[in-house]
Design brief:
The protein is built from two helices and 37 strands. The model is unreliable at about 1-25 (pLDDT under 50). It has helices at about 10-15, 380-390, and strands at about 30-35, 40, 50-55, 75-80, 80-85, 90-100, 100, 110-115, 115-120, 125-130, 135, 140-145, 150-155, 160-165, 170, 175-180, 185-190, 195-200, 200-205, 210-215, 220-225, 230-235, 235, 245-250, 250-255, 260-265, 275-280, 285-290, 295-300, 305, 310-315, 320-325, 330-335, 335-340, 345-350, 355-360, 370. It is mainly beta. It has a four-stranded antiparallel sheet with strand order 3-2-1-37, with no helix packed on it. It has one domain (about 10-390). Strand 11 and strand 12 form a beta hairpin.
Length: about 400
Amino acid sequence: MKKKLIGMTLVLVLLVLAGCSPKTMQPVPLAVIDDANRIGFVDSDGTFLIEPIFDAQFGPNLLYLGLSGFSQGRAAVPVDGLWGYIDLSGDMVIEPAFEQGTPFSQGLAAVRQGEMWGYIDRAGQWIVEPVYDYAYPFAEGLAAVVYEGEFGYINREGNMKIEPRFQYAYGFDGTLARVVMDDRTGLVNKDGQLVVEPQYDYIGKFSNGLAMVRDDGFSGYLNRDGDLFIGLDYDRGNDFSDGLALVTRGDERYFIHRDGHRFIDLEGEAWSFSEGRAVVEKDGQWGFVNKEGLLTIEYQYERAGSFKSGLAPVMEQGLWGFIDKSGNWVVEPQFSEVINHQDGIGLGVRESRIHLVDRKGNVSEESFKMVNLVPFLDIGVAEFVTMLDFY
């Protein structure tokens, strides 16, 4: 049921995931991999704050470096085949003793010792002994765990709050979590009661109070009471963002309001709204509209991505740069790939090397083989680890 992000380019990651919430890891210090295949941590201009001395031992998934992202003042790092944790000064505060480490969430980190998973606190003490086939990060006070091949949920004291009975289970989002039984998806509450019986092919994350659902090739939207608030009327639906959702019905593509009424008709492709603007396409050229459907930046770009921190990536003559909401260039086109800004930092690729780019257009002299993309995607720690598909 999970989807791996393997071999995705920076641009594709940007276009698929940018604009989601909530934010997860802090961007700085940012984990990077140098030419010697070592992990270090840099500041916003690419200067090393923590020297690259840690082994890089990751698979082909571009997001794996996120395992070493800083979260709650700790970063998991591999040393001689085992994982430990450093603090923001680079000091090893939890000695390498685990076969796998993951980022801290709500004060605890899921780690693997031998073949089993448990949880440690920020001092490295076991809070939940390693007795699970797999353990996911905590979200909303509960964590999904796998015991004897089935998913359930424990609390931060290690007590089983929802008995293992699911084929798969996601992290809690507010008071609800998505669960899978017999290849069908439903919603469970913190008491273990099924608010929505597993009956859909897919249920997305809640956004603006609604979650996109798919069944038998059609999309609609559930509310948090589990009601089908907007019926399965669309061939394709996107998550709500800025109070609007992009949908497709037959040959028509348009935005709808949260009450389901049709609002902005489109002539071509589009991306969801972000910061009050949506990327739209017409006759192979891209521009931007506001939430009234008015064109604010003319159709003129070869490609474009969503606004984030006041900037949007756009392509001109085969190269990417960044513009502001008035359409002025802030970073001239110069990159083969980009990912948009988070807390003043963006990324740009030149000649297969990744540079850091600030909001004023300054490009780092240092460049890297790989950087931690997770802080730029605005996804929670639990959702990020789910993407890696360990189990």
